[in-house]
Amino acid sequence: MAAAVIDPTVRQGMEKEILHYIMEQGFRIPGIPQNQLLARIQQEILYFGPIQSALDDADVTNIDINHYSEVNIERLGEEEFHPEMRFQDEAHLEVVINKMLMADGKALTANEPHVDSLFEKFRICAVLGTARGGIATEGTCASIRKFSEETLTPEDLVRSGTMSKEMDEFFRQILPWCNCIIAGATNSGKTTTLMALPLYFDTDTRIITIEDSPEMMLRRRSCYRDYHNIVALQTKDHENKEKRFDIARLTKVSLRMRPVKILIGEVRDAQACRQAHESMNTGHSTYFTIHASSARNAAVRVIQLAGDGYNDEVIASQLADTVDLIIFQQKLCKSRVITEVAELIGFEGARRPLCRTLFQFEQRGTDSEGFVVGIHRRTAGISGSLAEKLAQAMVPCQQILHWASPPERTEPYVTGLGGSG
Fold this sequence. Notes:
Elements (H helix, E strand, L loop, with lengths): L1 H5 L1 H18 L8 H13 L5 H5 L3 E8 L2 E6 L2 E4 L8 H13 L11 E6 L2 E6 L13 E6 L7 H7 L4 H10 L5 E5 L5 H7 L10 E5 L18 E5 L12 H8 L6 E4 L5 H12 L3 E7 L3 H12 L5 H11 L2 E8 L2 E14 L3 E15 L5 E7 L5 H9 L4 H8 L8 E3 L6
Helix pairs in contact: 2-3, 9-10, 10-11, 11-12, 13-14
């Protein structure tokens, strides 16, 4: 049965076996057509019970199970409550969760009441209820994030209103020679934007991706079919610390693999942040996401994580020399929008970053479908130090002069189509 859950081919064979068995035995429940009965039995045994329809729905990006009787989903950027997806009881919910964890060799138990895992195209965070020896007060719960099968290209991000045409042109001409941080809250679209950035690089660029779970998977995506120099590294947990490969250790490994561009899925602890900072210091173009409440807060967060309280001003000085751009992204209503692109100019001490806002989003309301309406406005030119760095990278002088010049006062790009997932 475990093989049927993990292997789609075995699952299809089991569907036929269940069909034959029910037909032979003549199982029936009054009031339920036999085809519906068969579908429900197959769903419970081989699939994932009441949430299977949400897992199959391409428009659903998140499934939040707050209680066995309360299931919420995010569809097309909008939160929805679905009482029909309720489980029979907590034991039923745990059976379904443990089936999803089975592929990773994990299970939700009192000894391990919190589990993060990856199954097929889903990332699941499960927490056991206190009544079963866990840590979730109101009962076992789970949050499931679905990975999109398609990568949104820069053109898609322009169409969706995540960024403007002028920002796309700026990134195309400038970003390949910059170190960049993408900041924002959970579910703001940071990873989606990060996955689009390599499409600004030459197709022969050697790219190494590093992440906890294989969400980027650039080699498998159609828009990267012409990119033949991509290596993906994934963390590996182990009870023996010496055999554990976390983000920090993988970043260190990647530096020995002759990287040209390093993409780090998420920096969230001190060691990972220090190693990402080190990769920038050693001259490797690095791009990573971090949770932060603003572009400036992202710079402060890096100091908080990478610093040790004694050399923070040195780290701040190095960060100002290595990080060029900070992209800040937010979920506004049903849209995901890059609301600021800032250049990190320097620091006053270790806690006050000096940022120059290059692009700013101005919200003007929402449309009839609940997507944000607003404008992306270019607010300043790049600094002389960034212009010099671009000149050393042989970026055409005309392009540098254009982005170093103050923006023209023309009516900016208007967006109102909704953002990426």
